[in-house]
Amino acid sequence: SLTSIIRDYNLDSIDIDYEHFQFDVDTFAECIGQLLTTLKKNNRVISIASIAPFDDAQVQSITKHFGRGCPYNHVNFQHPVD
């Protein structure tokens, strides 16, 4: 599992590249939300979610899903500058 990999290798971060996610924005937000919630619940594997949307209006809009009732200690929205 991802939790095991994080612990076994003493990782302090993971990077999820979602530039080519083939589903709608709501499905993406649900999947990422479930992943982060699971990692947080499993003995606090994570405490910060850092989200770096790219220049795509549809994918960029997923950031709104992470602001409501967020179960994380901190969410850092990173918006790259060209």
Automatic annotation (TrEMBL):
Domain GH18: 1-82
Origin species: Musa acuminata subsp. malaccensis
Name of this protein: (wild Malaysian banana) hypothetical protein
Superkingdom of the source species: Eukaryota
GO biological process terms on file: carbohydrate metabolic process
InterPro entries per UniProt: GH (IPR017853), Glyco_hydro18_cat (IPR001223)
Lineage: Eukaryota, Viridiplantae, Streptophyta, Embryophyta, Tracheophyta
Coiled coil: none
